[in-house]
Design brief:
The complex is a heterodimer. Helices cover about 75% and strands about 0% of the residues of chain A. By secondary structure, chain A is mainly α. Chain A has a two-stranded antiparallel ribbon with strand order 1-2. In chain A, α2 crosses α17, α4 (about 60-85) packs across α6 and α7 packs parallel to α22. Chain A is globular, with a radius of gyration of 22 Å. The N and C termini of chain A lie far apart (about 55 Å). Chain B is of the alpha/beta class. Chain B is built from 13 helices and 10 strands. Classes of the chains: A mainly alpha, B alpha/beta. At the A-B interface, α3, α6, β1, α15 and α18 of A face α1, α3, α4, β6 and α8 of B.
């Protein structure tokens, strides 16, 4: 704290230096644009723009990069809300309620909710990073292979929430995702699995390619369908007065929702290997579980958008914890930031705070400011961005189709990825017709490798210790995670039972 | 009217996205038509380079290979007088990028970062890595990261001898983390097991970052790690031995494996390569540019400070180095009977 105060004035001087501030704002704006384009991720935006920061002084460079990171994670929500396609994997959970809102003609509600909750979540994440980093990193270090396994298992139980209509279909989808995740080089052991002689498949199926396939392509096809059948599924967006205020007031009245999601996001972020996508999904799941009206989630409620967005922007702060305290990047974008730090001649790790305190604190405080800038841009932009959906499908569909190809190619500069995207898109379209939700599939894809690594490594540790039981079931964090798994898996039954009981008691009270 | 405005806006978004993609892919497809013309010219006298060069990084942005390429980028551009576009082709531990490299036109306009031992071990360990070690045509090797064995500060082992003695009495009890299977770290572990006659339990992670985190969290007893990671964490760990030929400047109090009587120099060495069949004249222009960077004092100093060993191998020396390591590793794997088991 003392250090913080010592550097505070200097940091503010850096941040509110006109050119620094403008560059950071530009970074946020550029990040939003990149983030909203599916296939162009925060990592990519940072990697492409890192060279431009070489010539800047370290504080300016880092502020700009921080702005890009924050902006890109937020930007992912725009395409998630408008065309049901997460612009970055972090925004997967944003589609669940964001897109239904757009369908109802309430795109602006969703966008404002996203901007506001992203801002709040981002600020909370940055503040936790600033003051609790040394403490939080201890939690990250406690996460060993068994904990990763249980965390991933816990994540998989979210399928129960995502497939309220049919648990069986959810489980089938999740299994499909897990299977897709096994393609390529085995994370441990190095075997080739299901590569069918394509050397490119050694790298496995890229998550973003699958996201574009499963979320975006079916959307394009149904737009075309609408034109052909002249049935209108998406309502026109009409700008209404006072929407922004209404949404913000509504969300501010539920501080617990935003804060809970932000804390989940930050914690998931500090665990290296689990990123914003997991953060968003877990927070969404918790939001459903804690809600008084869980059945409304998925039909278009701003709370669903808020839970996901607050969480994935808080994750930014969390993912920087291991980077700044240990010198280990917690997420791919953080890895690029680490490269940038090293090229500026700073070694990430505890030295940062000691040797480069003024720059480090400038960077941390600038993250808070960048989140506020992002909120302002998102807030005022919402009305205009929401109108994009009013474009006739004959313009919109080909344009989005074009972007899906660019996006899936550019993620790894690999043409096979484009074919995979198209294949998965067709599969996704058929599955949608059969009423499968794409959520469980991508959930399986994200969590499969984490669970596999955790399981195999734990087995190796167990072999050397001579006890499987001890490794899997006696570690404190593992036990907590196991309990969470059980609660989450059986939650639909518990809530059903709860509802019945409540219904009865209400019946009684109304009688009495 | 309004509609028009939005069409304009959308067009802008699309344009921006295209500009970005061009930035990312590094215009490798640019000027396809010119390529043939260029080749004709180079046959007589190398007028090279006349257009941007694509520098493939077969790993994700932010990794060590990326950092090194970014460090070189401005200097290369100056030395060659053309733009260098860095493009990422990650996957398969580098195999995807290297396979891509050997299939591009051998005109010097596509180069790729290479890592030893990856380019040696993958073709041995995998049925179809997509490329063979012989197809990688090295231009230079500029950086070494010797692999070291470390334990935490509070570990009972103070020397490599303590470690090995304990392992001898308790086969398989010590868990050792590292990055990847059939990777530099794995091979270092196999070498140590063979030379010292011990048995360890190897717990691989998919990357250096998770293996370091697990080790610092106390989930594994020891760690094989690259010198730069060891330098970063040197306050928290005891480094028992390092795989450099001689003592390393940044960790001068750490003995080498060789000093301690174990004939092994495990290291991840980074360089750059062109596709097979690239004309020698063009290769030597690239070679000169890289040598110029290797002689840059500021680059050397920055590397050492960050825990890397600056190397200076020209194309010939690089090829010899690769051949030597290839022989060493295939012998080791043959002795252990492991490649058969793999298939």
């Amino acid at each position: 704290m003392a250090e913080f105060l010592q550097y505070f004035a200097g940091a503010m001087g850096h941040i509110f230096n006109l050119s620094n501030f403008l560059l950071m704002t530009l970074g946020v704006a550029a990040g939003i644009v990149v983030g909203c384009l599916p296939g162009l991720t925060a990592t990519m935006a940072l990697a492409v723009l890192v060279p431009f920061t070489f010539t800047m002084d370290p504080a300016t460079g880092l502020m700009t990069l921080g702005g890009i990171y924050v902006g890109a994670i937020y930007g992912g929500c725009i395409s998630a809300i408008l065309i049901n396609t997460p612009g970055t994997p972090s925004a997967i959970a944003t589609t669940f309620d964001g897109y239904p809102l757009t369908k109802k003609g309430k795109g602006e509600h969703a966008l404002v909710a996203a901007a506001y909750s992203s801002g709040v979540g981002g600020v909370i994440g940055a503040i936790l990073l600033m003051f609790l980093a040394p403490l939080l990193v201890k939690v990250a270090l406690k996460f060993g292979p068994p904990e990763y396994f249980w965390l991933a298992t816990f994540g998989l139980t979210i399928i129960a929430t995502l497939s309220a209509k049919s648990l069986l279909k959810g489980v089938i989808g999740g299994t499909l995702g897990l299977l897709i995740a096994t393609i390529g080089l085995a994370p441990i052991g190095g075997e080739m699995r299901y590569t069918f002689g394509f050397y490119q498949l050694q790298a496995g199926i890229e998550l973003i390619v699958a996201l574009i396939g499963f979320f975006c392509v079916p959307e394009i096809l149904s737009m075309v369908e609408e034109v052909v059948t002249e049935k209108k599924e998406i309502q026109k967006f009409k700008s209404q007065k006072g929407v922004a205020r209404e949404v913000i007031v509504k969300l501010t009245k539920q501080p617990f929702l935003l804060i809970r999601s932000a804390i989940i996001g930050c914690f998931v972020g500090i665990v290296p290997g689990a990123g914003g996508n997991v953060a968003g999904l877990v927070s969404y799941n918790e939001a459903v579980r804690w809600s008084k009206e869980p059945e409304k989630f998925g039909t278009g409620v701003v709370e669903g958008v808020a839970a996901s967005e607050s969480s994935n922007n808080a994750e930014v702060g969390g993912s920087l914890v291991p980077l700044l305290t240990l010198g280990i990047p917690g997420a791919p974008p953080a890895a690029v930031l680490m490269g940038a730090l090293m090229l500026q001649g700073m070694r990430p790790g505890p030295d940062l705070f000691v040797q480069h305190g003024d720059i480090t604190y400038t960077f941390l405080i600038s993250l808070v400011i960048a989140n506020i800038v992002m909120f302002v841009l998102g807030f005022y932009g919402a009305k205009y961005v929401a109108r994009l959906i009013n474009l006739p499908a004959s313009f919109l569909a080909p344009m989005i189709a074009f972007m899906t190809i660019i996006g899936s190619y550019s993620i790894r500069n690999n043409m096979l990825d484009v074919f995979i995207m198209v294949g998965m898109g067709l599969l996704g379209y058929i599955l949608r017709k059969l009423d499968f939700h794409p959520g469980p599939i991508v959930l399986g894809m994200i969590l499969g490798p984490i669970a596999e690594k955790g399981l195999v490594q734990s087995m190796m540790l167990a072999r050397s210790q001579g006890s499987i039981l001890e490794v899997f079931f006696t570690r404190p964090i593992s036990i907590v995670l196991i309990i969470l798994c059980l609660i989450s898996a059986f939650w639909p039954m518990i809530s059903e039972w709860n509802k019945k009981r409540r219904g009865e008691s209400q019946g009684v009270s109304s009688n009495g | 009217m309004r509609k028009l405005k939005f069409v304009g806006l959308l067009a802008m978004v699309v344009l921006l996205s295209m500009a970005l993609v061009v930035g990312c892919t590094g215009g490798q497809k640019a000027d396809e038509g010119d390529k043939a013309k260029d080749q004709e010219q180079t046959a007589e006298k190398p007028d090279f380079p006349t257009k941007p060069i694509t520098y493939i990084i077969p790993f994700n942005p932010g990794g060590q290979s990326d950092v090194e390429a970014r460090r070189q980028q401005p200097l290369l551009e100056e030395a060659l007088g053309t733009k260098i576009n860095i493009t990422y082709k990650a996957g398969g531990g580098g195999a995807v990028g290297w396979t891509e490299l050997i299939h591009t036109k051998p005109d010097g306009y596509t180069i790729a970062g290479i890592n030893i031992p990856h380019i040696i071990l993958q073709p041995i360990a995998r049925e179809n890595a997509g490329y063979t070690t012989e197809q990688i045509n090295p231009v230079a090797i500029f950086q070494g990261t010797p692999i070291g064995l470390a334990v935490l500060k509070d570990s009972p082992f103070n020397t490599l001898e303590d470690f090995i003695n304990y392992a001898k009495e308790n086969p398989g009890k010590i868990t050792v983390g590292g990055s990847g299977t059939w990777s530099g770290h794995h091979i270092a572990l196999l070498q140590l097991q063979e030379l010292a006659g011990i048995e360890l339990t190897y717990v691989p992670s998919s990357g250096a970052a998770p293996s370091v985190t697990q080790f610092l969290g106390g989930h594994t007893d020891a760690l094989f790690a690259n010198s730069n990671d060891l330098v970063t964490h040197k306050d928290k760990i005891k480094i028992l031995a390092l795989g450099s030929e001689e003592r390393f400047e940044a960790l001068s109090d750490v003995p080498t494996f060789k000093e301690l009587g174990y004939e092994m120099t495990p290291s991840i060495d980074r360089g750059v390569a062109v596709p097979p069949g690239t004309p020698e004249e063009i290769k030597s222009i690239l070679e000169d540019a890289f040598i110029q960077i290797m002689e840059n004092e500021a680059v050397r100093e920055q590397m050492i400070e960050q825990g890397f060993v600056p190397l200076k191998m020209d194309a010939k020396a690089a090829q010899e180095h690769i051949n030597k390591k290839q022989k060493e590793y295939s012998q080791l794997l043959e002795d252990l009977g492991l490649p058969e088991e793999k298939k």
